[in-house]
Design brief:
Oligomer: single chain
Strand order of the largest sheet: 6-5-4-3-7-8
Order of helices and strands: HHHEEHEEEEEE
Structural class: alpha+beta
Strand content: 15-25%
Mean pLDDT: 78
Number of helices: 4
Largest sheet: 6 strands, antiparallel
Number of strands: 8
Radius of gyration: 23 Å
Length: 196
């Protein structure tokens, strides 16, 4: 008896596999696109508490002018410095929401901006170039305002966040960037940027 040429053996399995691959590819594209957009900038924000901090701490790493934006070569030693400083500061400062937003350097208790300026200070002390860093104002997955320190490296932009001891790619952090802030030419002035 001749075979039905309209439906050769294994055709239905091949169709199922092909459809599964198409669905998988579409899902991967959507996922990667949304992850890349996690670091999309929405607007620019210029916080007054930062200016007040720089008036009282003009020589703090967060306030001194970085002569040019640089990209940090991400060697194992550099990654270890980033991880150790971030983890140490996360452990040393106890989290506490502030009623009035005041940026503080090396406090016992503090919120996200206090972690950021303290980490910058430590990283400058360890010899890393400040032109590779910026303060990112972000929205968390829960929609809360938050600040993280970000670093531009040869392997991408990473965040040093007080919510985790892991050094994560900013695109995979789950945060949506609102704005970036880099120190300006005079203490307390800010060069905000929609891209870092």
């Amino acid at each position: 008896m001749p075979r039905d040429s309209r439906n050769p053996p294994g055709t239905s399995i091949a169709i199922v596999v092909a459809l599964a691959l198409i669905v998988y590819t579409i899902a991967a594209i959507v996922f990667l696109s949304s992850a890349a957009n996690a670091a999309t900038v929405i607007t620019v924000y210029d916080p007054k508490p930062y200016r007040a901090f720089c008036r009282t701490h003009p020589h703090a790493a967060a306030c001194e002018y970085a002569p040019k934006q640089t990209t940090l070569e991400l060697t194992d030693d550099v990654f270890d410095i980033l991880r150790d400083v971030s983890s140490d500061v996360n452990w040393e400062i106890r989290p506490r929401r502030e009623v009035r937003d005041v940026w503080s350097l090396r406090p016992t208790y503090g919120d996200c901006d206090d972690y950021v300026v303290t980490k910058l200070e430590r990283l400058r002390d360890r010899g890393l170039p400040m032109g590779a860093f910026a303060i990112a104002h972000v929205k968390t997955r829960a929609g809360e305002n938050h600040a993280v320190l970000v670093v531009r490296t040869t392997e991408g932009v990473f965040s040093l966040d007080n919510l985790t001891d892991s050094i994560k790619s900013l695109a995979w952090s789950g945060h949506t960037v609102v704005s970036y802030m880099r120190p300006g030419r005079t203490p307390g002035s800010i060069l905000t940027s929609r891209q870092f």
